[in-house]
Prior knowledge:
With 348 residues, the protein is an alpha/beta fold.
Amino acid sequence: xxxxxxxxxxxxxxxxxxxxxxxxxxxxTEIYEEPDLSTVSNTYTLSGTLCVPLxxxxxxxxxxxxxxxxxxxxxxWDFSPGSSEDYSYVAASASAGIxxxxxxxxxxxxxxxxYDAYNVVQYATDVAIAVKFAQMLRDGxxxxxxxxxxxxxxxxxxxxxxxxTALAPTALxxxxxxxxxxxxxxxxxxxxxxxxxxxxxxxxxxxxxDEFSNAYLVTLAPQTFQLNFWYYPYYSQAxxxxxxxxxxPVTQGVIFTFGTTPxxxxxxxxxxxxxxxxxxxxFCFENCYAVPSGGPYTSVLDYVQELFPATNGFSTYxxxxxxxxxxxxxxxxTTYQNMLQFAESIFS
Length: 348
């Protein structure tokens, strides 16, 4: 639980909080966090979409469960700039005969935007919601009962998906973690270079102040969006402009909590597939093959298997010339083929 925070503090104070959080010699936890945990108990309205192939569905009891990352809502998975479906993982899955379920994370898209952007909209709440949706897919609360569920996350969505396997190890049969590794050394640089600012001030039309408290943040300029999420020139301008136009806010509560040490998924036995762009800035510092010589691994992604000691299969795929937003680069169609091949191996 956070203390000495104000959801409607001005940007000077919000920036001060971020400085204290990033500083290596900061006692951020002692100053801004209560030592005792608090329980958030409430009912929130969340928007989700179950997409079932119109024709050619291979098995009506199989589904991919899609969890988006920071800066987007669930449209990340069904992105169609200029009417092109090359970037839509939902469309690619439907063409392969596989259903998908995606939802807007709390505070984004059509889901509810709680006022408290610290103690409500943060990592622990997001994970609890992610676990609940996974369980609902199993018990038939979302359209139909699914006997096999493959969790697919991106970035912060991958962090949540990995947490599901640790907290509810039977909720998912397998996972695809995209835009992800266990290397968070670039995080302080990312949080500095992305230049977050109060959403209602950057874009008051999209994020009105009566709906979003000041601690809901968006990137200040397209250039900071590019620096952290994209690898030029291996994407189209239409894709970049489209992504900027649908950017969604992130709370300071999420920023301050999502980088905690991930729990080990000690009881999860399903297969794990990690897909991260070779030029990912956030999780690979733009080189996913930068590992110590003579070590046990050939890429940064290989270290993820240490979180899954009981997995019955671990694999990786590194699309070349691809930044953090795996779905939005020219490589997306080929990447989707790889991801769907993995998913189909689970569903077969």
